[in-house]
Every structure is written in structure tokens, then in C-alpha cells.
From TrEMBL, chains A, B:
InterPro entries: KH_dom-like_a/b, OsmC/Ohr_fam, OsmC/Ohr_hydroprdx_reductase, OsmC/Ohrsf. Gene3D superfamilies: 3.30.300.20. This is Putative redox protein, regulator of disulfide bond formation.
Length: 194, 194
């Protein structure tokens, strides 16, 4: 009996994701689309020069404020010497690459699970080109952001090459960070009162 | 003599940034615009489910490969329970907010220095709204990324309110991460060979 229970439990995990929980979440959202509305947050404090630190903990989703986190995440932005810093941390444009890598990966793994595809190995290398004349205001015709970001994906899975290509395209189209980068997303900055 | 030297050295720092180094960098780029071309990089490895880890170290800029970093930065993406994870780390869309907060802050501080404005205090709160029907492929008309990101900035500095407003607008327009989010930036994904 115990052995059967273990086999049944293992069968519900694909790529480390709980298939039943995923199905339940999707069914719940289909029944009440407002459950899909999330708000993520970060608070950041400037330290000195190019050094600043964010704390991340609370968010809203599935119709309520989350209370699952027992600790606050902290991340420090810094800059290398050539950008007037002391390598206090990775810099913001590097953190953007980390966010993009993780999001494309998780979206890929999630939809692989939905298709019953088992992934053995998945890694990415990202490179983004940027011309700092934009940031520095030297040439106003140069966009300050990335010109382009390239992702090289290494993946091994129990499916055909065509299935992998389809999944890669689908992950690119459905990744929240990738979509935030590819599509113009409004950023509104306002002064805090008082 | 020693006291004078110390005073002179302190006078060259505004907001923790070395004014002379900044001027020299800008002069060097104006003389040779290719020095402003940077390439930032990240490598990411999937662990399981929504957990994956990036390493960040090398980059290209100012005409050469950087060798200033004595350690590799590592960051772990995770997901909360409602997104099928175990809070192994902040999630990718939260890391994006950290990147955006840091970039707007550093751009603000940098251009404050260029204008001779001394900042006493600077912090931000970010909130981004997202409808996960996009990620989950439940409704293809819903964009998977952020709908909008709002930044509330608290700032104290030795300048007028109008100067602060001007600086806030300038920072928004010249921040590389903010510009990458606001403007459509192409992301190219390709399979690694072999």
C-alpha cells in the first residue's frame, strides 16, 4: 500500500511541478478570472553612488494578500569601477537579464508540464547590447535601454525537436518578463507626498 | 597639507560619485563613441519547477572585457506556493521590479551629480499589475507581461521642487531598465548547437 501511494504521488510531479495543483489553479481561474490578477511589489533604498537595495516580500494574488513568505528577500544593486562603483552587487541591467532568464525558463518548464514533456536539462546564456551614450545623455538619438537581448537555450527533454521548437516559441510568447521587455509597458513615476 | 588634500578629495564626490572620474568617462566617450558600447551577460541553470539560478560576472565595456570582479554574483529565482513553488527566491517579475527600482535610482543620482544637486535621501516603492491568464495561456487576448508599473519616489535634496521634478522626468527618460520596459526591445531566443 505504502509503495503504491508513493508511486501515485511521484506520478503527479512533472518537471518538479505538481500537476494536480496546476490543474486546480487553472480551473479556479477559469471559474473566476479575477483570481488571475496579481500585484507584485518592491521597495528600494538608495545607499550611495550606484549602490541601492531592494526588499521584496508581500504581493497580491489569487484574490488575497499572500502570507506564505517567512522571510524578506533583499538584493543589492551596484556598479563596476568603469561605471563609478565598487561592484557592490550586480547592476540593474544585469538583474534584468536574470529576471528574463528565469521567466523564460519557468514559462518553458510550466508549459512543458502542461504538454506532458519531461525536461532533463535546461540552461540559458543571455547577452544584451547597450550603448551608454543614452544613459549619459551624450546623444539623445541613442535609446538608453538594451538594443537587443539574445538568449541561447540548451535543452534536453523526452520529446521531438519540433516539440521543443514549438515550446520555445510558446515560452517566448507567454513569459511575463519577456513580454514586458518586447512590448511597450507604461512606467509611471510619481513623487510620494509628505 | 594633509588636511587640504583630504578636503580636495571630499569635494570631488557628489552623492557618493567621483565627479572627476565621471567627467573623464564622458570626455573619453565623446572622443571615441565606441567606448560606450557595453554587453552584459547572465547564465542561468534550471534546478526544478520554478527554481533556477543565474550567475553574473563578465561583461564587455569601455573597449574591453572587464576583469574587475573578484567574485561571481548568484541569484535564485523561485515561486510562491500559489504559483507552484516553495519561495525558493523572489520570482522573475519581482526581480524585474528590483532592476527597475535600482536603475531609476542610479540614473537619478548620476544626473543629480552632473547638475551639482546633493541628494540626502532617496527611496522608491514599486507596484506592478499583471493578469496571469496571459502566462497560463487561458486567454490569448491578455498580455502575459505587466500591464503597468508604478513607482512612488521619496526624495530629499538641496534643490527646488521644480529641479526635482525635472530630474525625475530626466531619470525616467534615460534609465536603461526603464527604457527597456517602456520601449519594445527585441528578444531573440535560439537553440544552442550541440
Amino acid at each position: 500500500m505504502e509503495q503504491h501511494a508513493m508511486i501515485a504521488e511521484e506520478a503527479l510531479l512533472i518537471n518538479g511541478l505538481d500537476v494536480t495543483a496546476a490543474r486546480n489553479t487553472i480551473a479556479a481561474i477559469q471559474a473566476d478570472k479575477s483570481l488571475a490578477r496579481f500585484q507584485f511589489r518592491a521597495r528600494n533604498t538608495w545607499i550611495s553612488g550606484g549602490e541601492n537595495r531592494s526588499t521584496i516580500r508581500d504581493f497580491y494574488g489569487v484574490g488575497r494578500e499572500d502570507d506564505s513568505r517567512t522571510m524578506t528577500f533583499e538584493f543589492t544593486n551596484g556598479e563596476p569601477a568603469v561605471l563609478l562603483g565598487d561592484n557592490e552587487g550586480a547592476n540593474p541591467v544585469e538583474f534584468l537579464l536574470h529576471a528574463l532568464a528565469g521567466c523564460v525558463t519557468t514559462t518553458f518548464v510550466l508549459h512543458a508540464m502542461a504538454r506532458g514533456i519531461h525536461i532533463r536539462d535546461l540552461s540559458t546564456e543571455l547577452a544584451g547590447d547597450i550603448d551608454l551614450q543614452g544613459l549619459l545623455g551624450i546623444d539623445e538619438s541613442v535609446p538608453p535601454g538594451y538594443e537587443q537581448i539574445r538568449i541561447r537555450m540548451h535543452v534536453e527533454a523526452d520529446c521531438s525537436e519540433k516539440d521543443l521548437e514549438d515550446l520555445m516559441t510558446y515560452a517566448q510568447q507567454h513569459s511575463p518578463v519577456c513580454n514586458t521587455v518586447c512590448r511597450p509597458v507604461p512606467v509611471v513615476i510619481e513623487r510620494a507626498k509628505g
